[in-house]
Amino acid sequence: MSETVLTGRPTVSGVVAESGLEVFELKVDGGGHYRMKLVWGGQGEPPAAGQRVKGVIRAEAKRMDVIAAGGRYVEPVHGRPRRVQGRITGGDAGANVVDVSAGPAVVVTPTAPGQRAGDFMVGQMVSFDVLRGAVFTPLGA
User: Which pLDDT value is given to residue 7?
Assistant: First the structure.
């Protein structure tokens, strides 16, 4: 995904809880107790535990379903994101991404055959499983 796709996308901030070579755990700011294991999308290795970061979480949806009711969440609360449900707040049909407010903000690429970001509208509630490898790209990377 190009840097231009990330311009203007919703951001997430938090503290690095654990750091590995490519995967790190982010303790997300702003309510909830999310500790998300994400792939580091910045230059070099992820920052050391205890450092603050701000950036964009990108994920690929297996299939996005529009739902009539429900809350916003990422499952599990601790670990790699596997399921997301939230409200669409924006997107870019040309870049095939949808911004979803699910507690933490997630920029989502639909991957199911026949689904494109342009199929969804701001304000819709969506629910989807996440493909392995959600990426955190720090601002300025």
Answer: 54
Residues 6+ apart with CB under 8 A from 94: none
Query: Mean pLDDT per segment of 10 residues, for the chain of length 141 residues?
Result: 55 94 91 90 92 97 96 95 97 96 96 96 97 93 57
Q: Decide: residue 33, CB within 10 A, 0-12 exposed, 13-18 middle, 19+ buried.
A: exposed
Q: With beta carbons less than 8 A apart as the criterion, state whether 110 and 116 touch.
A: yes
The answer to whether the bond into 138 is cis (omega within 30° of 0) is no
Phi, psi of 117 (to 5 degrees): -55, -35
DSSP state of 4: H
